[in-house]
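hey
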């Protein structure tokens, strides 16, 4: 029997392989540790900072730039589902802003009888609404992964932050459904989300969270009457919820009420809500730690005001004109600004 001759061992190759394995392993540890640190910092510092800011556009830009970066760390560590809830809520709002601008372009085109321009604006608007619906749906799905799926037994919240993320996730779900309906269902948001969100809202204290949980429920009851408890008037619930939000300085419930009344064709009631909001932001400062949400409510009500103004006059709400309307008594509002003509 022949003996196999010993071959010379190439230690350089072995060392190179060992070095590469060690380097890759070290990189994975570094990436994971970096991700954990950044996600922890975002939850502890970035979220409170953004919520306390008063610049909605800056918060919008932050969410669009920051979302893919922070969520990419889910490849090396636990997925930051709670962060995703708020990031997608803001990112979806960015898309809504663009959709609102296209809606105004559509109304101006109708006002000037420019049919091709109106058709193009409507197409663009639906595209942005579809994008908003998809982002909000992603935020709602993050809620399901982070805490639980709404509609069943209420979760055992271990902190105020958990309740806040639950509330923001419910808003994600509601907005996903509304935006998808506005875009003719292109985003394929499940319609049963509305009922789940309504039941999930009952898990939160209405007084503690600015009247928003009941406002969400009431908005859903108007659109899905079969879910409404017997003997309950959703519009009365909305009005009571608005008053809570006005007093506490977080007036998101006014936006839901305005949207509900817009859908019902109650334009005078919509105007009344906008007027009330303008007085409220003068008389009652925003709750400091949630200033962004209150500013977002103002931006959304201004968008509704712009829609009404543009539909009636061909141009949006005048500068400093929130709470005024074109058909107010003469002298109540100046609809012509000479600076705009220069």
């Amino acid at each position: 029997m022949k003996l196999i001759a010993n071959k010379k061992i190439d230690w350089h190759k072995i060392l190179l392989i060992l070095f590469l394995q060690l380097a890759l392993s070290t990189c994975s540890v570094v990436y994971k540790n970096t991700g954990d640190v950044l996600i922890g910092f975002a939850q502890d510092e970035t979220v409170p900072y953004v919520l306390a800011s008063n610049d909605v556009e800056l918060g919008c830009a932050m969410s669009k730039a920051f979302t893919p970066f922070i969520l990419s760390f889910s490849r090396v560590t636990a997925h930051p589902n709670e962060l995703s809830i708020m990031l997608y809520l803001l990112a979806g709002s960015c898309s809504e802003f663009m959709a609102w601008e296209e809606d105004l372009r559509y109304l101006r085109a109708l006002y000037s009888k420019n049919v091709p321009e109106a058709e193009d604006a409507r197409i663009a608007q639906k595209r942005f609404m579809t994008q908003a619906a998809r982002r909000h749906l992603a935020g709602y799905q993050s809620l399901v992964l982070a805490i639980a799926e709404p509609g069943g037994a209420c979760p055992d919240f271990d902190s105020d932050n958990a309740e806040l993320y639950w509330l923001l996730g419910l808003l994600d779900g509601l907005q996903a459904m509304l935006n998808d309906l506005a875009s003719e269902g292109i985003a394929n948001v499940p319609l049963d989300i509305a009922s789940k969100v309504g039941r999930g809202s009952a898990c939160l204290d209405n007084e503690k969270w600015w009247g928003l949980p009941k406002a969400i429920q009431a908005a859903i009851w108007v659109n899905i009457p079969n879910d409404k408890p017997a003997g309950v008037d959703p519009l009365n619930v909305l009005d009571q919820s608005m008053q809570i939000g006005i007093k506490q300085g977080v007036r998101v419930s006014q936006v839901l009420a305005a949207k509900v009344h817009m859908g019902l064709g109650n334009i005078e009631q919509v105007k009344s809500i906008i007027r009330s909001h303008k007085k409220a932001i003068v008389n009652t400062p925003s709750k400091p730690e949630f200033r962004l949400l209150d500013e977002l409510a103002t931006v959304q009500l201004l968008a509704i005001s712009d829609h009404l103004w543009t539909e009636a006059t061909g141009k949006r709400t005048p500068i400093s004109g929130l709470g005024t309307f074109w058909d107010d008594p003469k002298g109540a509002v100046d609809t012509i600004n000479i600076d705009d003509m220069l």
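Residues 1-5 have pLDDT under 50 and may be disordered. The first helix runs from residue 11 to 52.
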